[in-house]
Amino acid sequence: MPVRIRLQRHGKKGKPFYWIVAADGRAKRDGRYLEKIGTYNPNTNPGTVELDVDQAVKWLENGAQPSDTARTLLSYRGAMIKHHLNGGVKKGAFSQEEADKRFAAWLEEKQAKIQAKIDGLDKTKANDLAQRLEAEKAVNQKRIADLTAAPEAEQAEEGETAEVAAETATEEAAATETAADEAPAQEAPAVEESKAEEVPAEAPKTDEAPAAEVTKSEDAPAEEEETKE
Predict the structure, then answer these.
(1) Count of domains forming the chain
(2) Is the pTM of this model over 0.85?
């Protein structure tokens, strides 16, 4: 019976969660399995892999074939390197103690790399958070400045409106005074014209007086001539 080490999908839609299982190669992907040897959660950064390394090595030594994804996860947690070291012990290349020592060194180095990646991600996350806080702070300061400037702008507009109203009132007053000054000047010619019309009416009286005197002077010689006769 061929045995496969593969992933079995669990979790909910949009957030998958996988079991690492040893199952019959003819079984369905999410069907019956022989043994659960670990879990894989891709929703974290970096992904979380929990694995029973000794059981995984046992299945590998019994001929189980991992899928491509399962092989990557087994290598990530050291199952593949331990399986390789056990093969060297069986061949007599080195002792079991040396194999365990090499495996411990590999685990330490691997853990340091994982921790460095986690620290880098945390630092990046902290920097992003600080930048967002600075951006929010700048937006809040701009909002406060706008709110503070709004009353000043309203006061300035009210002042300009008052000045315009004062200028308008001044112009209206000046226009009223100008109209009052121009009104008598327009009536003056009418009075002068009436006076000018009245003067010729009396003029004939002054002309008639000399005519009467002339008449009397013309009659006077006639009377003298009669007296002489």
Answers:
(1) 1
(2) no
